[in-house]
Amino acid sequence: MNTNFQLGTCNAVQHLNRRSLMKGLLTTAGGLAVANWGALTHSQTIAAEAKRTGKRCIMLYMEGGVSQIDTFDMKPGRPTAGEFRPVQTKVPGIQVCEFLPNIARHADRLGIIRSMRTKTPDHGPGGYYMHTGYHPSERFPHPEAGAMIAKYCENPESDLPSFVKIGSGSGIYGAGYLGPQYEPLVVADDGKLPGFANPSVSPEIQGRRGELLSFMEQRFAESRSGDPFAAHRSAELRAIRLMRARQTFDVSAEWEKAKDRYGDSKFGRGCFTALKLVEAGVSFVEVSHGGHDTHMDNFPISKALYSIMDPAWGSLLEDLTQRGLLQDTLVVWTSEFGRTPAINNRGGRDHFGRAWTVVLAGGGIKGGQYYGSSDRDGFEVAENPVGEADYMATIYKIMGVDHRAKHFLGARPIWATPEDSKPIMELIR
Amino acid sequence: MINSAGEQNVPVDRIAIGLFVAAMCLGPTLVCAQDGSLRNSIDREVRAAWEKEKLTPPPRSTDAVFLRRVNLDLVGMIPSYEEATTFLNDSDPQKREKLIDKLLADPRHARQQAQVWDLAMLGRKNKLVDGTVGYRNRGRFRVWLAKQFVANEPLDRIAAKILQAEEEGSQLFFAAHRDPDEMVNAVSRFFLATQIQCAKCHDHPYESWTQKDYHGLSGFFVRTMAVDVPGKPEITNQTGNLYLVGEKMVGEALFSLEEIDAKTKKKKTVPIKPKFLSGEELAEPEPPQDYVEPKLKAGELPPKPAFSRREKFIEWMIAKDNPFFAKAVANRVWAQFMGRGFVHPVDDFNSSNDPSLPELLKAIETELVAHKFDVKWLVREIVNSETYQASDLGAVADALPRFYERARIRPLTIEELTSSLHIAMGLGVEAALKTEPNQQMMQYLGEPTDGQGRFQGSLSEHLYLHNGEGFRAMCRPNKGNLPEKLVLGAEDWNEKVERMFLSVLSRPATSEERERFVQYLSVDAKDPKQTAQRMEDALWVLVSGSEFRFNR
Question: What is the pTM of this model?
Answer without folding.
Answer: 0.80
